[in-house]
């Protein structure tokens, strides 16, 4: 009995640590920021990769916007995609509670780790999220839930944070950390 307890104790500690790590990973999500050091307007969109970008407009946004909206995103290696004027009021883009999907071509990237939107106009706009699907990377979602200020790049830059990746829509691997020690405990008993 004593051997079983001494063997199980490290497994229980490992399981507790995995739960702690998993709960800590969920709290990394930050708020969007004005990205003063980024200049996306000089990007040359020469490349052969296609990206799908899904933008959800918040249900607490204005009913519709006539503002000019641009998008930029990239990886930690300086590969950046710039999509000027993705807005189109005639097609009801960025209406309250809507989801808009864009096909954007640009330079190929590795894992996308920064994204920003630029708004110019008087109406205002509040995106809920921006999800980017790329060829060489996992899909990544940036959660805004904030009104975008006019005349500035507004978003997230996780590229300079060593060891951190952008928050994903669902971090499906978290259950795995807790499942392995639990499985081992059940197998031992």
Short description:
21% of the residues lie in helices and 28% in strands. It has 2 helices and 9 strands, in the order αβββββββββα. Helix 1 (2-26) packs antiparallel against helix 2 (174-188).
Give me some keywords for this one.
single chain, 189 residues, alpha+beta, Lipoxygenase-1, 2 domains, five-stranded antiparallel sheet, four-stranded antiparallel sheet, 9 strands, disordered C terminus, signal, PLAT/LH2_dom_sf, Embryo-specific_ATS3
Proportion of beta-strand residues: 25-35%
Q: State the helix count.
A: 2
What is the H level of CATH, i.e. the homologous superfamily of the largest domain? PLAT/LH2 domain
Strand order of the largest sheet: 1-9-6-3-4
Summarize the helix and strand pattern as letters.
HEEEEEEEEEH
Shape: globular
Oligomer, anyone? single chain
Number of domains: 2
> What is the class of the largest domain in the CATH system?
Mainly Beta
Q: Any idea what the CATH architecture of the largest domain is?
A: Sandwich
Radius of gyration: 21 Å
> Would you report the number of β strands?
9
Largest sheet: 5 strands, antiparallel
Question: How is the CATH topology of the largest domain named?
Answer: Lipoxygenase-1
CA-to-CA gap between the ends? 11 Å
Backbone structural class = alpha+beta
* Residues in helices, as a percent range: 10-25%
> What would the average pLDDT be, to the nearest integer?
75
Uncertain regions spanning at least 5 consecutive residues? 8-28, 162-189
